[in-house]
Each structure stands twice: as C-alpha cells, then as structure tokens.
Amino acid sequence: MSHDDSERNTAVPANAPNSETRGPEGPGQRPGGQIIFLNGTSSSGKSSIARELLQILDESFFHMPVDAFHAMRSDRDIPDEHLQAEIDRTAMGFHRAVAGMAAAGNNVVVDHVLSQRWRLLDCLDLFPAQNVVLVGVHCPLPELARREQIRGDRTPGLAARQFEQVHTHGIYDIECDTSKNTPREIAQQIKSALAQRPIPTAFTRLKVTLRAGDPN
User: Fold this and answer.
1) Backbone angles phi, psi at 174, to 5 degrees
2) How many other CB atoms sit within 10 Å of the CB of residue 146?
C-alpha cells in the first residue's frame, strides 16, 4: 500500500468541564496556538526543517507531519479503487487534528503536501488565518528525483507528480529552497521572519482570493 499523499462516542467523562461552568480558557490554555505550515512536495525537506525548528524556537511546538497519520493506519491492503478515498479521509482527519491542537493553545509545525486544491480550502476553513505562517518549501525537480532514489522509501516519481500542483496557489508568508540552504539555515530564516511576517497573512489573503471564486 502506498500513500501520498464510525461510531459516535456519546460518553462524557464524569470530571469533564461543561460549557456552563468552564471559563473561556482552561488551565494553561491560550486562545489559539501558532501554526507554522510547511508546504512542499515529498522529499523536499519539510521534516528536516521541522525538526530543526523544534530545536531553535523559543516556545514549545509540536511537529505534526501528515506522513505520521498515514503510518498510524493498520497494515492492510487497500483496493486501488478505494485508495484515494482512504488518503483523502486521512488528510481530512489530519487537518482537524491540527486545528484541535492549535485551538487548545498548542503551537504546531505542520508538515503537509497541498497537492490538491481541496486540501488548502479545507485548511483555510479550519485554521485561524491570523495564527498561520505559511512556508513554501521549494526544491528543483532533479534534486527531488535524486533524493527519492537515495531514500528508497518513496514511490519513484511521487515528487514529480506533486511538483506542478503543490505551489499553484502562489502566496506565502515565507519561501525557501532546500537545494540552496541547509535545514538549520532555513529554520533560522523562518524563526527570524516570524516577528516580521507580512500582515495580512498569506492565509488571510488566500481566503479572499480562493474563496471569492469558489461557490462552496
């Protein structure tokens, strides 16, 4: 099985606070955590950048890669005709898990591939635009192919199939090229840019430009 990319539980813990007795924020919570959103093809270096960010950022952050959610799936063969639906459901769940972590006040580094338009639209709906720092992680196609071959754990040509779609929205707060700088250097660039990123944010502008022409 490759990847790119119920029953409702009605039981409530006896000690869970309810909306009538709980304040707007629980102990140690903030209104919303920051989301550093790394978008790029497979093998572009997102995970390496994320690991460096967790080492150098001043506040506590969680690294949430979409690949980790695919890895949680039981080891079962999925028929080809059902695979894309499985991938899409996983991505949708991943988006909501990120949104939930941030809503609880946690800072998150997201490692994702926006290779389909609906993925970006879904994130635009779920994430508070003012809290998202959208980072474009670029890498030339020949270098992506070289990395795929060296890694050996990716479907050959996966990055090439994603290459034309992943950056089509064209708006970022920060952009980097992993063929020119090391993950640590890029992490430092992102950290330095956090305090002076453009306002309105890329997510705010994308909400306007993409949703304006989207009937849904």
Assistant:
1) -140, 140
2) 14
Look at residue 213 in the predicted model and tell me its pLDDT.
60
Record the pTM: 0.82
Task: Report pLDDT digits (tens) over 20-41.
Answer: 333 444 545 456 899 999 999 9
Which H helix or E strand runs over 107? Answer: strand 107-112
Q: Which residues of 15-44 are buried (b: 16+ CB within 10 A; e: fewer)?
A: eeeeeeeeeeeeeeeeebbbbbbbbbbbbb
Cα separations in angstroms, 172 against 25, 49, 71: 31, 17, 28
pLDDT tens, residue by residue, 144-184: 999 998 887 777 889 999 999 999 999 999 999 999 999 99
Rg value, the chain, Cα = 18
Tell me the DSSP string of 137-179.
EE--HHHHHHHHHHH-SS-TTHHHHHHTTTTTT---SEEEETT
Phi, psi angle pair for 204, to nearest 5°: -65, -45
